[in-house]
Structures are given as C-alpha cells and as structure tokens.
Specification:
single chain; 1149 residues; alpha/beta; Rossmann fold; 7 domains; 7-stranded parallel beta sheet; 6-stranded parallel beta sheet; 42 helices; topoisomerase; ATP-binding
Length: 1149
Amino acid sequence: MITSVFHSSCPNCQGPLEDYRALAGLPCTNCLAGDEEPFRDLPQSEKIKAVYNLLVNNNKLAKYWELYYTAEMYDEVINYFNQVVGKEPWSLQKLWLKRLGERENFSLSAPTGMGKTTTLVAYSSYLSKGVLYIVPTKSLQEQICSKIGSISSVSCGYVDRDGISVLTVSYVNKKYESIKDYRPTFIAVDDADAIIKSGKTTDKLVELMGIPKDIYEDAMRLVRLRRSLYLKEDKDEILEKITKLERKIQGFTGAIAQLVVASATLRPKGIKQKALRYISGFDLSNTQTYARNIVDSFSCSSIEEVVQRLGPGGLILVSREYGKEKMREIKDKLTSNNFNVELAISGRKFLQNFSEGKTDILIGSASYYGVAVRGIDEPKRLRYVLFYGVPKSRARAEEAIRNPFTLMKIARLFGVNVPEDEILSLSPAEAQAIKISIIKGQVLPGKLGEVQKKLEDKISEVQEFLKSVNGIVRGETFLISRRGKDVFIEYPDVITYLQGSGRSSRLLNGGLTQGLSVILVDDQILFDLLKKKMNFIIQGFNPVQFESLNVDSITKEIERTRREGGNKIDISTGLMIVESPTKAKTISRLFGFPSRRTIGGVNVYETVIVDGNKVYILDVMATKGHMTDITLEDKGYFGVDVKNDVITPLYSHIYRCVSCKRVVSKEIDVCPYCGSSLINSSLSIVNAMRKLAMEVDEVFIATDPDTEGEKIAFDISVSVSPYNPKVRRIKYHEVTRSGIVEALRTGTSIDINTVYSQIVRRVEDRWIGFELSKLLKSKFNEGNHGAGRVQGPVLGWIVNKTREYKERIGWLLYIKVGNYVYREYHKTKPAIPDGPVQVEVVGERVETLQPPPPFSTDDLLIEAYRWFKVPAERVMRIAQDLFESGLITYHRTDSHHVSGKGIEVAKEYLEKMNFTQDLQPRSWGPEGAHEAIRPTRPLDLESLKKEIGENPMLMSVKFTWSHFAIYDMIFRRFMASQMKEAKGVFKRFAMRMKDRSWEADLLTEMEGGFSRLYKYRTYDIPIGEINPEINLSRGSDVKLLTYADVIKEMKEKNIGRPSTYAKTVQSLLRHGYVVESKKRSVLIATKKGINAYAFLSKFEDLISEKVTADLLAKMDSIVTGKAEPTSILLTVFDNLRSLEALPQSEQEI
C-alpha cells in the first residue's frame, strides 16, 4: 500500500496531511480521527460546518476557523443578495460576491446584462457604511442612488462618512480638499477611464484608499525600474532592486480600502496608474465577449436604402477618417427620410432618448474608445449596427516605422533587407525600448543598442521608399496610402468591429438576443483584410451580402429574442491550473483579452471560453512545475517511511532560491548553496490555488498529459479538495482553442495508476541515487558526486567508448571530393598522398524513397543535434516553448501516430501550396496515449514569422533562431510524412589515386513527392580528374558518442523515457563525469567519471542496463494495472538496505 503525506498541508493544524484525508476534504487524522465515509456525500458547506463543530468539540480547532468563516461569509453575502434582489445570484454573480466578501481588489469585466451593477449595489447595501461609489456622470449617479435607496439609506452627491456615498468623478476632483481625510473601507468605481486618464485623480484615489505615501512612492519607483531595465547595462542590480520592492509592496499588510472597478476602455500607461496596479494587485481590464448571436453582412448600397429597409433601432458607426462632418451629413439625410436621429458623441442624454423611443437612430464614431462603441448598452431597443465604411486604424507611416515590428513589415513590402530574426527575437518590451530610444535620440546599451543601430539605418532606407508612394500599396494585413502630404499605414480594426457589432446582441434575462451587423464597404481591400483577421478570432467568419438576406425573417427573430428572451446561455465559473506561466498566458489569450490579478505574488488570468451556449469564466494559473517533492528533511529512509509493508513518501513544498535558482524540498529561510534570503516557496502557489478554488464552481486540472503531469495533477487535487470537492482532470495534446474546448467537454478523473507509477519511479530514484551518492562521496571524499538508475548505464557507455577510443588512437586521413569525405585509419603516421583523384561513375540506379515518419521525442533530439548541434536539454526547452505557444502538439512522446486532425492540417497546407497531387495521408501506426510531434496549424516558417511580426503579443515566449530552426524541422518532417514517395538517384563512384582506390554508393538527386519540402542528404561529386582537399590528424577509428548516439541507445535499450533523455546526460555533465568537446560535440568521460563508474560497476544488481530496463517495464505495467507498486518498491528497499555495511568494508570493493 502506498500513502502519500504532504507536510504543511493540513487545513487545520498546517501539519502533515494524508492524501486520502485530503481527497475526502478533511483535515489530518491527528486533528480529526475516524472514518472518512460519513463525510463523503455531504455537500461542501455542510461538510465544512460538521468538521468545524467536531474540531471545536474536541478542542482541536486551529486554522480551520478561517475556512469555516469564509464559507459562512459567502453564505451570508449570497443570502443577503437573495433577500434584497429577490432571486438567486447566478454563477458569475456568486463569484463576484465571494471576491467582494473576501475584500479582494478586482475588475468586473463582464458585458451588460450580467448583473454587475446589481451586484455592486447589493454589496454596498450589505456593508451599509464606509462605502464610496464613484460614477462618471450625474445621470448615472441618480440611477445608482435610486437603486441603493430602494434597499438602504444613501447619500447622493455628498459624503456621509458613516454610510454609503455616491459621487461623480468631477465632485471628487473639485471638492477634494473637503473630503481628503475621508477613509472609506470600500470603493466602487463605475468608470475606470476617469482614473486612467488623470494621474492627479489617481493620486486622490490612492489617498482615499489609505495607501501610505512610502508604499505609493515605492510602487512608482518599481514602475520606473521596470522601464529602465532595457536602458541600462547593470540588469542584475536592477532586477535585485525590483525583487526587493515587489516583496515590500506584497508584504504590506496595512488597512486600506477595498477597490473594485467596472471594465475600462483604456489601458493604464502613466506611472501613477501602473503603480496603483502593483498595490491593488489587479489590471484594469476590458469587457470580454461572452458569446455572440449576430448575422454579419455587407453591402455596397447607400446608407438611406439600408436604414429604410431595417427601420428604427439602429446604431450607425462612421469610420473615423470621415469625422463629425460626415456624421452630420448622414443625420441630415436620414432626418429628411422621417427618422429621428441623434449623434452619440458625448454625454448620456442621447441614450435616454433612444431608450425611451424618442430617437430612432444613433450615429457615432467607429472608434474603440468612443462612447458609441463602448458606452451604449440598450438590449431591447438597439436591433442592428451599421458600419459606414470598414472600421480601420491609421497611423503616419514615418512615425510607425520606429516600431521594429512595423518596420519589418513595411521593409519587406519594399524589398528592404532588415535583420528579421533579430527583430522577431525581441520581446514587446524590448521593441518598445528601441522605439522610445529612437524617438528620443538615445542609444541603448549592449545587444539592444546594436539592433537599434541596424534598424535606424534601415528606417532611412524605408523613408525614401515612403516618399515615392502615390496610390495604395497592399501588404499582408495592412495598406499604405498617401492622404495629401502624409503617407499612412492602415489596418482593419477588428476590435472595434467586434465591440461595435456586439451592441446589437446583448444578454437579456439570461439569454442572448439576436443582432444584425451591416458593413457599408468603402474599401474592398481593407474589407478583405478585415475578414482575414476576423477569422483568427471567429473561425468561419464570412459576412454575407445584405441584399441576399431574408430581412423579414431576421427582423422577426430580433423582435422575438427581445420579447421572449434570447438564446439561453449556461455560465459557470472555474479555476484552470496548468504547470507553466507561459501556458497560462497562452490559454488565456487564445480566447480574447484576459484580465490579470496577483494573489500572494502569483499571477492569475481571467478569461472567457465559449462553447456554443456554454460559457466558462475561468481563472487560469500555473504551478510552475512540481509543487512538492520527497522531503530532504531527516525523516524515514531518505524521505520515505517504510513500515509493515506500507510505503509512505513524505512530501515537502518546494523552495526556490531567486539568486542561484537552486531548488530545495524542505522549509528554508536562507539558501544553503549561496546564502541568499530571497526564497520563493510553492506554498504561496498552493495558498492562491486554495483561495481561488473556494470562489469557483469547479476546478479543472490541466497539467501535461504524461506521468509527471498526472502526479502534479494528483498533488493539486490533494491541495484543493478540502476547499472545493468538484475537481476534474482535463487533458489536451495541443494548446489551441479547439484542443482546450474539447478537453473541457471530456473531463475525467485522475489516473491513480499513472500516479503510482510516478511515485515508484521517484522513490526508487531517490533511494538508489541517495544511497549510491552517499557511497561515492564516502569513497572519493568529494561533495559533487551522484548516481542514479539511468545515469549509471549511460555513464558506462561513455566510459567504455572513451577507453576504446584511446586504445585505438592513431592517425586519420581525410580526402574530400566535392561534399563527400573518404576516411582512412592508420595506427602509425602515414605519408600524405599527393596528386589528383580520378572520379568516374560506374553505376546508377533510381530508387523509390519512402518519406520519414513524423518526429517522436528521441527522433527530434537526435535530428536537432545532428543538424544544428543543439543539446538535447535545450531542444526540450524549445519544444516546450513551441507546445506552450500552441504551435506543436505535445513533445514528450514515443509515438509516430498522426490523428485525423493532424492529417487535415497537412491537407490544408498542401492544398494552399498547390501540392495536392503529392498528398498521401498516413496515420503511421495505431493510436496510443500520445500523437507524434506535429504542427497544430498549416503554418510554415515564413508564415509563422509574419504572424509574430504582425502581432508580437501573440506568443508568450521570446523566439530565437533555434526556435525557428526546430519549428521548421518539425513542420517539414511532418508535411513530408503526409506526402507521396520521392525518386532518388544513386550513383556508384569509383575513385583512384596513385596508391589507393575506393568506391562509394551515394544519393545524388531527389525529386517529386516529399522531397519538395524535406530532403535527405545528397552528394555533389565532380567527375574527372579532381584535386581533393587532404587532411591528416590524430584520431581513432572508434567514434566517441554524441548526444544523438546516447539518446538513440537509450531508446533502443529501453532505459529511458522521453522526459529523461535530455536530463540524463546533463546530470553526468553537472557532476563532472563527462565533458562535451566544443569542436566535435562528442562526449568524453573524465578521470572522475571513469573512477566513479569503476566503483558503481560493483552494484550491477541496482543500475545495470537489464535491471533498469526491467524496472521501467514494471512501471509501465503499473500504469496498465498489471503490477502492484508496493511490492516493486519493497524489493528495491530490501536490496538497498543490504548495502548499509558497505562503508565499513570498502577495502573489499
């Protein structure tokens, strides 16, 4: 039997917690003895109350009171909402109410109809005192006062220090001197833009919140330091200052007001606004799109014809370049056609008139920040949105090209060569630093300065081309056009289109109303570009000709959904937990524009995932890998208790040193390696996870679909189950929208057999590694020694090959003809031949060449090393980046299988490239746990570079040349695997010199089929009398092993797994047993490694190839349920205990 115990994890005593107790949602057995069964089917709230009462009665209550209090507070706030609103809050409102009750600072980013105002009004009334409600206008002030006044007393337009005060932003600014000593406990801001626009307003808000001046100044200093990170050379010193300031701000525990804001249209840019973000712990976020029920259409008809057909209830958004003059012109035209029309430019009166039916049509600007796009929410009256002109953004090209990414796009258009790979490897922050430095005439230090210099030279070249632009120049996703004296770059504005058209489809009574959007096309090229970009956001986006619509039918549906209620949507809240922060960012960005907040130093992203009528509001966070490991404390047998045939691994949280990056699995205040006190603990991640789990309906564990991922999933489940029992394991093999949505549909439970397999591997690795390391350190009296189950055999291969190499040291003669090299070995130094080589073709044949299968992990590591000399560990990091960026499928796999989805990717790409005749779909074997490594989209290297150039924020990782090289290799290999065979020409060459002759059978040509995208090595050999290149050097006829050779042998002898190939050699290098030759990239055993292996060879029953392979096979059997994990570990335990006498009898070894 295996039972895991997790230190510092009991929700009551903070002591050790047994896994089975945690999964039952209970404290440890020391706090609450007895059977788990009576609690198993209790609802969560009842279970918490029952446990609390038992702990009180048994005089054992400790930390559990916090969990009980939180649950009680949730119930109290939600019950109050029921009482004053008259109905149960729905899932999202419950989430908000829980956050409000927990006194969290956060941003409400839901669209109108979700009950934001109702929730804030109810909570303000619940508090009843110390409430400051800030609104943008007097009319909204009156509305809020009326709503609060119906259930509680309220002060409207003045401050009641003991009650609820509703004030306008204008009042706060103008009357601030009279209220500056006012200290509310809760501040609700309806319009965050009022704060974002003005640093002075931010100052006032900070003071009202009660934030100490020194903390505010520290936060502003932190913003400045972050901005200077790329401008100065002493980055390490700046980073240390940043870390200390962040810790000080996060550690501030003084009493300040709770801040909650409604969604914003602007991004905070000023130092003061960003400083407030660091203190409050959340970003001001934009409203997110929850669902869309809109008919998208276009027309070339006149605006009068379309409006006449659709009637009242319309919003006309005029493309920005036309200005107010065009708005007034349209107003006059429609007014003459008997429509009541108003301009929606400023104020709120127009909306009141529209809502009351006094106005038929509203006209505003097609600007993302405009009041017409962002400020109109009238679900009943507003039936359709009409865009006068394709919505677009415009910037002066001469200014735009100061941005490196924009420069690259425009330079490509004019044929100007710029350092594209260097630009694409820039992070958005680095690109911004270069842009600012160019504008200010400053020079950045280091490599960024070198890139800046290159770009400034290219800017001058591009400016000359811009001067010659007369008409329109079309790019991939933009236009360049001359407007009078200036040249502009124009983009279709997809965000404005999404937000603007969304005004016609709103949530009403729990349903989504039908809406209609019509674009009056004024620029066909920009319209085509809009469709192209929209397809990245809404798959299958294809507006139809307005004149072809059955307008009567659509109008009836528009009216019905406003009368009876729209398409019902099912909204639920969840917490999605992944391993890596990169993956958390990627997933949250896949579905829109996430908001971010920080809980205990942990970044959490809120995103919305829509699957038909099902809407998930998800918090996405990362564990940063394993949160626990077998403890390094002096407990059990190297951290594992073994008693009465029960194996109990003892897990501690992981502590990471910020300074030296070392990891320790025991509680520490100071790093044992470098002495730094800057320590991060995974306990902060666990605490954030538990807090979030209590707020949501369900927890989705979305760790990697492999053995390690399953163990992390198990640890997460143990951590959160006492706080939320609704835990589901979801798996995906590609980080794409479809992959994530499908995973949410098909959630399952954790595979406990896979967890046991990982525990067995980790325990025996700890036991064998620590036992042998102890013996090695004792034998050689040196600290940096270590060995493990897999490292032992691999070290043996390298040691033996090094010995064989040295035994056969002699001379190597190389004769190079074309790109072919003939090699001879001589034991003694030979004479260097002279004279030409006679080359002739003595035979030729044509063979059918089969395409290679797509990559498995070992194939990828071998090929990447062979072609680019990139070490396996780095290849795995790059592959991880590519996977987490959504570009490739899961990269730890021993399968070559291709799914139907993968075949479709190949088919789409080959059709696009006009290679349809070469398509040959192949599944490459039966379906297994994983698929082969393949691209997730039909995106070749050139297209990928363009996509990153168009949207640098798209990828959450910083791309280097090796990222591009590895991706290109994966892409081409996969596409080749889905193509027809190629023809290969093999020639047999006879080569003669004075005293020697030889023959070589070589591939010289490839054509057709997969060779269009993927080539095998071919040889170009000149015929006739050739003067060769000749070299003579010391060497051996035994080849030393490379990374690729070791990985191949590990795979063939079954002593490794995709997750361990890279780590094994790195471990040997770290211990100094092996070095890698820089010139030839071969692995050479050191004297230390040779001595260590000679000692380890005495323990073949622990680390031989056969024992290691057998153990791995047993672990596979555990996964399938065919082997019992405890017996395997007990056998290893018995073998190791017999070594205890060895240190006293070392002389015999």
